[in-house]
Amino acid sequence: MRMVLQIVVLIGLMAALSPAGAQSRLQRGKLQQVQDAYAAAVRWGDFENAWQAVDPVYRAEHPMSELEFERYQQVQISGYRDLNSSTGPEGTVERQVELRVINKHTMAERTMRYRERWRWDPEAKRWWLVVGLPDLWHGE
């Protein structure tokens, strides 16, 4: 009888934990999709499309002008490499990225690092980039 009770409790725990695990796998799958799409947009110089992955709250607080988007046309991304990922504060995911940036006017290439931070939006059921587009000029 005791063995049957233990099995019933174990099955109940597995059933209770299973949806959370499935949701987590679903979220990780969606994170991979949005990160891949974002990385492709950056690599191909489509920063207006990459901007759509940025959190709407951040976009409202930091609007991009046409001039700022035009500035991204002065560079070409020749490399985008994921260095590592980790869990950040409040369930965010942080990803360290290495970018290889070519200035189209001088043809000089340089390497820089950029830290992405992604948050899960339970209402929209998607991930948002909460740090904006990379500052390829380091504030210059």
Give a nutshell description of this structure.
The protein has 140 residues and is of the alpha+beta class.
Structural account:
This protein is α+β, with helices and mostly antiparallel strands and 140 residues long. It has a single domain (2-129), classed as Nuclear Transport Factor 2, Chain: A (Roll), CATH 3.10.450. The chain is built from four helices and four strands. Strands 1-2-3-4 form a four-stranded antiparallel beta sheet, covered by helices on one side. A hairpin with a 5-residue loop joins strand 2 (93-103) and strand 3. The longest helix has 42 residues, at 2-43. It is globular. The termini are far apart. The model is unreliable at 12-21 (pLDDT under 50).
Protein topology:
Blueprint: H1 2-43, H2 47-51, H3 56-61, H4 66-72, E1 75-87, E2 93-103, E3 109-121, E4 126-129
Antiparallel strand pairs: 1-2, 2-3, 3-4
- Strands of the biggest beta sheet: in what spatial order? 1-2-3-4
How many helical stretches? 4
Strand content: 25-35%
The topology string of helices and strands comes to: HHHHEEEE
Average pLDDT, to the nearest integer? Answer: 87
Low-confidence stretches are 12-21
Q: What features would you highlight for this structure?
A:
140 residues; alpha+beta; Nuclear Transport Factor 2, Chain: A; 4-stranded antiparallel beta sheet; 29% strand
